[in-house]
Write a structure and sequence with these properties.
mainly alpha
Length: 51
């Protein structure tokens, strides 16, 4: 799942932007703050095509 897809599924629960989705940049910042990285294949997105 790509970060833009993750951002579309999240909802801000409180505050001025209550009920809206966070921006993609906000999700990237949140991942950077926690040290987490989006999961991906080591071979890249087209690895099945090369096999």
């Amino acid at each position: 799942m790509a970060v833009p897809e993750i951002a579309a599924e999240l909802i801000i629960p409180t505050g001025k932007n209550n009920g809206s989705n966070p921006s993609v940049a906000s999700v990237y910042r949140a991942l950077a703050d926690t040290g987490a990285t989006p999961a991906h294949d080591d071979d890249g997105p087209n690895s099945a095509l090369r096999r």
